[in-house]
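Anyone? Bumping this.
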Amino acid sequence: MAKYLLLKHYRGAPAPVNDVPMEQWTPEELTAHVQYMRDFAARLESTGEYVDSQELSPEGTFVRFDGEGRPPATDGPFAETKDLIAGWMVIDVETYERALELAAELSAAPGAGGKPIHEWLEVRPFLGGACTVTE
Amino acid sequence: MNELLLRELVPAVIGVLVRRGADFAAAEDAVQDALVEAVRVWPDDAPRDPKGWLVTVAWRKFLDSARADTSRRHREVRVEAEPVPGPVEGADDTLRLYFLCAHPSLTPASAVALTLRAVGGLTTRQIAQAYLVPEATMAQRISRAKRTVSGVRFNQPGDVATVLRVLYLVFNEGYSGDIDLAAEAIRLTRQLAARIKHEEVAGLLALMLLHHARRPARTTPDGRLVPLAEQDRGLWDTRMIAEGVDVLQAALARDRLGEFQAQAAIAALHADAQTAEETDWVQIVEWYDELVRLTGSPVARLNRAVAVGEADGPRAGLAALAELDPSLPRHTAAAAYLHERDGDPVTAARLYAEAARAAPSLPERDHLTRQAARLNARLRG
């Protein structure tokens, strides 16, 4: 098994096919969307492939060390930041093909008009620990 | 009674329940429940006959859940409270469980999870922690696996090769958290070897012992990989090496070579060298030739090329490497190593950095990055 991160972007990914912003959906469409995500996670749990999922607020601030005895320096938020992560799901699957299949399914979550959003999700493999037999 | 002794009883107790008429999935659940109770009750009130106690409690748990099931379905209770007459223990229930849990209809990950629970007696939580997934996910993986094998007859003979692949997977996962999967794989393989006389079972046990014996030297306390040539051989577990060599020699004497015996032979040659310089690379290349012949594995060919580099010089190693698909995992790392040995640090540094970017694990990436950094510093200096 290998773990993969399915990354959802607020910005930075290519535009989805069904590109109506969420605030313009009907309440029923929003409910259907949320339900789809829940069902998807529940189904992955039942197949033994679910690890974690989280959503992130769009706000973010850059922080860095600013010298001994000084408070951390902050900057931003940057409205123009190119790439903005909206959330993720972590899956533990048998093959890379399976990871792609699941990401595609997640990308088919319904949006405006109840039609699939076809949004672009980024699939990133985890770096694992070292296996024992390498010589 | 310690946890390990308790866990050793698990497969036999499952076997008794199945023999009395429980289906495998229900029997396995009941034994897990009994285990939980044993852990709670035994410290204050240890039974004289631990196995008998587990059988009694597990059977009661099974009856309770079977009754709950049938009443849920509004059906007549058909399971009798008294066990059906019949043999209390079969010829070797433990062995049958190994085959069932590694059944070819299971995916490797399912077979691993089921083996650790039903043969190893680990709890779902322990297995989930070892594989870094939520407990609910692991519970589902295990119950799906049980459904998959529900139609398989318990006493159906299986293929020992599938069992060995599962145990090897467990071993290679290493350890994270409380459960040392490598040690658990050795325990399960040792238990299997005691039940079945098979050269490859012995070969795998030897391979595991010979690798495990070197584990303390393989990483630094902060988790860095230490290449074989730089390992402190004083940290190797000589008793475990001696056991591995004994097991291997007994297997080889039966003259039915297989891939695990060949791999163990290579590990034994490494373990036998007092210093890296004393390594018998010529013999190691011969064993890799056997391994390639037995498996045709591209990974074996890659390792063979590195061994050729040690036996006949880096140019020969690079020539052997040139015949292989460059997209093979660790091909670039092997090329970097051989180029450095060939006195070309510029190429080596570039290839180490490239290999680091493609490394499948964090310790390997760090190791390769450090190799590149070391050469780059030397080139600057």
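Late reply, but here is one note on the structure posted above: Chain B has 19 helices and no strands.
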